[in-house]
């Protein structure tokens, strides 16, 4: 506002040259000799009881400083900051050295250093000050200013600790704390007990991240119009990640004094179906597992496509290749199957199953036939069907029926979708059908006379702490069943890997263990 007013009052400002090196030198000298000491003493006055209680306490109300804290202040404080910024600019212009680049450059650099000081993340290595000891008096660090927010009678300077030294307000712990923080920056810190190894679903959901759009990530993902302008940038980032990237930490929470983290393989859903990309994806997954093993992680659970049967045999590739692994590799599908199977009402006598020969399809079919439920298994492979049929008890085999067309289920109102079906294929379901599903992405809910279940999920126990974002389309505190399966594996302290085929005999055991630890099924039906 002040800059706009100045432009209107002094039209000559609109005729300034684009560049003038003398203007940069003049503004720097005026900043050091006038703005720095002015801010230092103004800041000290704002810490006097009256000014602090009525004005400056707002700025110190952030328990943890972050870049936005730099601008979190009252109008009076903003006027003081405008004065501090404006003196070098006005002085340079009056000297005849003003330029457009100097004005914008000075303001941007000023705001950058203000935000840097409040970032609560150290980026300046202590070796710089060891080699150039005097530099510590001419440039502050995030550690230096963070100390001011915890010990408020010290470290008042704007950017130059020299004025704290001259005013006897320099915190003697500044240099030592800075060295300690930067020396430990390369260490891993607290080791997670459990890791959920996820992947990116698609370009739109890639923006549903706490480090991109924090408030958006705190709600379940759904398509929003404001995301569209970000699509081109996200697409470019996807290409960059494809060419050069590594598995990264996405989010974390604490459960019963145990640290749980979500790591993300930098690959998008469609890339898992490109034959030439499978080797690179498996390399990322393998490196993540080996890293978890080196760190001392107890359990690592593979999400959705990271455990694809065609990709790595549900994780068996890595367990067989590295038999010495201490970290337990888990696909979590046993609990996923348990969640799906416990959604059925007891009076269900017949179900239609797509994706019938997949890991989850096989386990679902074998479990239901033991309960005397007739399973119409959609598969064109007689060989795979016969293999599953032989696993069923002899007296239950007649409950497994191979079908090759969706029309076979036109009288069945319970569909279990393990392989994506088109709207036309859905049309064969009778009115009143409920679609259970474990397919990624979920099928399109086009039938208004039917109901659609969400992907299998469970709510974490109520004593979970630190959840700051939602897992894809789930509510906060709700995670995919394969994620929950890894959590149960870790809480139970089971020492075996859970890879490859699902052990049907363990489905009820895992379900009971989940309920015992306070996890609850989420029955969400979309009409």
From TrEMBL:
SUPFAM superfamilies: NAD(P)-binding Rossmann-fold domains. Residues 29-169 form the Fatty acid hydroxylase domain. Its main location: membrane. The lineage of its organism: Eukaryota, Viridiplantae, Streptophyta, Embryophyta, Tracheophyta. The chain crosses the membrane at residues 79-104, 225-244. The keyword Methyltransferase does not apply. It is found in: Membrane. It is a multi-pass membrane protein. Residues 351-521 form the Very-long-chain aldehyde decarbonylase CER1-like C-terminal domain. GO terms for molecular function: iron ion binding; oxidoreductase activity. GO terms for cellular component: membrane. Belongs to the sterol desaturase family. One of its GO terms (biological process) is lipid biosynthetic process. It comes from the Eukaryota. InterPro entries: CER1-like_C, Fatty_acid_hydroxylase, NAD(P)-bd_dom_sf, Sterol_Desaturase_Related. Keywords: Membrane, Transmembrane, Transmembrane helix. This is Fatty acid hydroxylase domain-containing protein. The keyword Transmembrane helix applies. PANTHER family: STEROL DESATURASE.
